[in-house]
C-alpha cells in the first residue's frame, strides 16, 4: 500500500513539475506585439406580469500595440442599443456610441504574469430616439491591473479603477452639465477580460 501511495505522489509531483516547466514558455509581451480584447453582449427580458419586453446588445472591440517593451497604447470603439416595449408600445429606445484611447505601462511584460498601470480617455454619446435628445459625455480614468498568460497567445486580465473623472451634458436647450470625481479602488467592481496576442 505504501508503495502504491508513494508511486502516486511521485507521479503527481512529476506531472506538476513538468507543467511548471512548460508554463515558463507561456506568453509574455514584447515590443511590436498587438493584442485584442473587447465585449459582445446581448440580453432580452420578458416580464409577463407587466407585459414589458426589453432587448439590448453591445459590441466594443479594443486593440493595443506595444510601442516599447513596457509601454502599450491602443484604442476602442463601442456601440450599444436598448429598447423597451410595454403592452406593444415603445417606452424606451436608446443607442450609444463610445470611442476611446488608452495607454499602459507593464512592469514585467515579458513574463507570464505582469502588473500594469492604465490611463484611459473615453468620449460617449447616448441618443434617446423617442425624446429626440442626446447626452454627450467624457470620462478619464487611472487604474491598475494584472495580466496572466494561460498560453502563448491567450491571457486573462483583471483591473480596478483607482482615479476617475466624468462629465456629461444633454444637448437640450438650457441643459446644465454634470461632473463627477472618484478616488480609491473598489474591489467589488473588478473587471475581467481575455486578451489574444498576435
From TrEMBL:
<dbReference type="InterPro" id="IPR027385">
    <property type="entry name" value="Beta-barrel_OMP"/>
</dbReference>
<keyword id="KW-0732">Signal</keyword>
<dbReference type="InterPro" id="IPR011250">
    <property type="entry name" value="OMP/PagP_B-barrel"/>
</dbReference>
<feature type="domain" description="Outer membrane protein beta-barrel">
    <location>
        <begin position="7"/>
        <end position="198"/>
    </location>
</feature>
<dbReference type="Pfam" id="PF13505">
    <property type="entry name" value="OMP_b-brl"/>
</dbReference>
<protein>
    <submittedName>
        <fullName>Porin family protein</fullName>
    </submittedName>
</protein>
<feature type="signal peptide">
    <location>
        <begin position="1"/>
        <end position="19"/>
    </location>
</feature>
Amino acid at each position: 500500500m505504501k508503495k502504491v501511495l508513494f508511486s502516486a505522489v511521485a507521479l503527481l509531483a512529476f506531472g506538476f513539475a513538468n507543467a511548471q516547466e512548460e508554463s515558463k514558455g507561456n506568453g509574455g509581451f514584447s515590443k511590436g506585439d498587438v493584442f485584442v480584447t473587447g465585449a459582445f453582449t446581448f440580453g432580452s427580458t420578458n416580464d409577463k406580469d407587466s407585459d414589458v419586453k426589453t432587448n439590448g446588445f453591445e459590441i466594443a472591440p479594443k486593440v493595443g500595440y506595444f510601442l516599447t517593451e513596457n509601454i502599450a497604447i491602443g484604442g476602442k470603439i463601442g456601440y450599444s442599443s436598448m429598447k423597451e416595449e410595454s403592452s406593444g408600445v415603445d417606452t424606451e429606445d436608446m443607442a450609444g456610441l463610445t470611442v476611446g484611447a488608452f495607454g499602459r505601462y507593464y512592469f514585467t511584460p515579458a513574463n507570464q504574469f505582469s502588473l500594469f498601470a492604465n490611463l484611459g480617455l473615453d468620449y460617449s454619446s447616448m441618443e434617446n430616439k423617442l425624446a429626440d435628445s442626446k447626452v454627450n459625455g467624457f470620462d478619464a480614468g487611472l487604474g491598475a491591473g494584472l495580466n496572466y498568460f494561460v498560453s502563448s497567445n491567450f491571457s486573462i486580465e483583471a483591473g480596478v479603477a483607482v482615479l476617475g473623472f466624468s462629465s456629461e451634458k444633454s444637448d437640450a436647450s438650457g441643459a446644465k452639465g454634470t461632473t463627477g470625481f472618484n478616488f480609491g479602488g473598489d474591489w467589488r467592481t473588478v473587471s475581467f477580460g481575455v486578451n489574444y496576442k498576435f
